[in-house]
Amino acid sequence: MKRFGKVIKLLLLFSAALALFVLAGCGNQSSSDKTVKIGIMASDDRIWKPLAKKLKKQGIDLKLVEFTDYNTPNKALTQGEVDINAFQNYHFMNDWNKANKGNIVSIGDTYIAPQRIYSKSIKSVKELKDGAKVAIPSDSTNEDRGLRVLEQAGLIKLKKASLHTTKDIIENKKNLKITPLDAAQTAHSLSDVSMAVVNNDIAEDSGLKPSSAIYVEKITKASKPYVNFIATTKDKKNNATYKKVVKAYQTKFIENKLKEIYKGSTLPAWNYKF
């Protein structure tokens, strides 16, 4: 009987240990569900770090994964290396999905950042000489946008197209030598070209001050495709934790952070009237 009692005790101890193990496992799973990896451009960490602290109080551990180019964040998203990302606009996403048979979707708008023209040699686009070299971003979305900015500035005219390339230039009175470059290289090209159209985050990463731009893209109703947003894959678009991240972003707190950090160069898009 004593031996039988010892067996019963051992079985009870084993059962208790097993129960604790299962509970611990469930606890870890719950914690894992609250961890969200987000892919961002490096310069945007000044917005996302304060937001991560806010989300921590809501039980969400936001892990920032920083990128310095536009080629990898969507690949990282589709390959599961990040859960969400926040770097692209609608034009870029639609073009990327089409080219890569992707299933990336928006789950909430963040900001809109006008493209700017920078130069080290001139102080106005009117000072451009005939045959001057001009750099614009080379990815299809930003090449289109860069060309539209040059048209806004009165330097070229474009034929109608959904996504313009340099082949769509129908008037170029100054015979400008317009060269598409990887977006990350446009700022670095300023020593070799008369001017460059540079995306806001690339300018930030390169130390270019928005106030030093010689031309700023005008934001109009036609600018809606250039609104940035938080993205995930289609199968995760209804994830409750991701929606909490969006809700936390679209607040007065972040609106004030955008004003504080970007000095008016970046506008909150979730309540912007296009």
TrEMBL record:
InterPro entries: Lipoprotein_NlpA (IPR004872). This is Lipoprotein. It comes from Companilactobacillus mishanensis. It comes from the Bacteria. Its main location: membrane. The keyword DNA-binding does not apply. It is found in: Membrane. Gene3D superfamilies: Periplasmic binding protein-like II (3.40.190.10). PROSITE patterns: PROKAR_LIPOPROTEIN. Residues 1-24 form the signal peptide. Belongs to the nlpA lipoprotein family. It is a lipid-anchor. SUPFAM superfamilies: Periplasmic binding protein-like II. Keywords: Lipoprotein, Membrane, Palmitate, Signal. It holds the Pfam family Lipoprotein_9.
